[in-house]
Amino acid sequence: MEIKKINTIGDLKKIGYKSLPVKEELRKNMIEFLHKGENPFEGIIGYDDTVIPELQTAILSRHNIILLGLRGQAKTRVARLFINLLDEYIPIIEGSEINDDPFNPISKYAKDTISEFGDNTKISWLHRSERYTEKLATPDVTVADLIGDVDPIKAASLKLPYSDERVIHFGLIPRSHRGIFVINELPDLQARIQVALFNILQENDIQIRGFKIRLPLDIQFIFTANPEDYTNRGSIVTPLKDRIDSQILTHYPRTAFISQKITEQEAQLTKEQKEKILIPELLKQIIEQIAFEARESEYVDEKSGVSARLTIAAFENLVSFAERRRILNNENSTTARISDLVGVVPAITGKIELVYEGEQEGSAKVAQILISKAIRKVFEQYFPNPEQIKKKQSQNPYAQIINWFSKGNTIDFLTSMSEKEYSAKLRSIPGLQKVVDEYQPDADDSMTLLFMEFILFGLAEFSMLSKFKLENGIQFKDMLSSMFNIKPEDDFDTEEDSDFFR
């Protein structure tokens, strides 16, 4: 259909154009997507068997929807993708403030225009991107913002009395007629404002300053809410909740693999970072495991949740920390290291809500604890558990490494250490490469070095070695000697805790 040639209501009639209510339009296009086996919610990962089928069902049922879930569960992103289910263009009465349907006008302006010009009434075409409106619910939102109010300036400029319907300034909801209207964080909306939505959802009526007007608005409503908000900041009033047809629960990624796919998709890296900084699979796994550990941590508020933004920001920081080292050493490229995980601490501290015990520890220390637990968890996927070896009294593959440290040897890993220094230090530890060769025989040179470093961190997490924080790096040494040589000034309960990740 060549829309440029269709400029009047008469032109629409000639081509046999039929208007559809917005929910019917969404349903029609959803059916088309299903027939083609395509997904209108492109880029939403981890919801294929849970949220998306429920969304499809709600759309087929022509329901208003509320997406209920903790922060960082892609609720707003899902809502924004609803525009993919709208027709690319729809006709409206030219000059209409509320997107009047040429065949079913509801505003006084549209009705008067059609009454005057008939089939010669001018139309314009509205793109689907202009049919989406989003409002963040905040305590200062008013009924006038959402529904409308009398506009004194309009009354004065048009020289009209306040009793004239033309002095009305329509709010966001009437201006979303024939489109999608989203209210984010619905519980934050004051109860009296929520009450104003009752009739719109059920009877399509609105009332503005006592004007006796009935606007049968045609809107797909989508709401988002966080269960935490129900007690912390407000609630959804029961009659409003009753009028929302489908409540769909969102969730965090069920597996680290899905979480990793989300992180890789959403992380904002430069072309140079992608080309010159290698992030091995091992480190990606640790990054994702941090979020899983946080969601189960006794220090983190479970009700608040741990957003997927944590792993995205942590991944970006890991890349940038490795990039900084590459630049300082004037190297062409580099591979991220286990010791680079110190760089992700700032990405964690701002994205976890702590319970009382966590506040006592401090956010930085909790972040370090989470990293430690993630390393410990992932370690068992690559190498034997040192504790299990000890219990079974079987041959210990780590014995040569531990014995070397027990003789008083130490290793310092500085954050800005060059690739050459990094390799030399790791290869100086007897038995370290032997363990990698035995359990990860397919590793190339760079991965062999990373696994060698990983073993040191793993042994420290299983209390086989000690790991101490230096001003610009970390130091590994024997566990027993470090216990007997604690200086009086060492205070492990302070922010300057010498244990790097504990």
TrEMBL record:
GO-annotated molecular function: protein kinase activity
Gene3D superfamilies: P-loop containing nucleotide triphosphate hydrolases
Highest taxon, organism lineage: Bacteria
SUPFAM superfamilies in alphabetical order: P-loop containing nucleoside triphosphate hydrolases
Descriptive protein name: Magnesium chelatase
The species this protein was found in: Ignavibacterium album
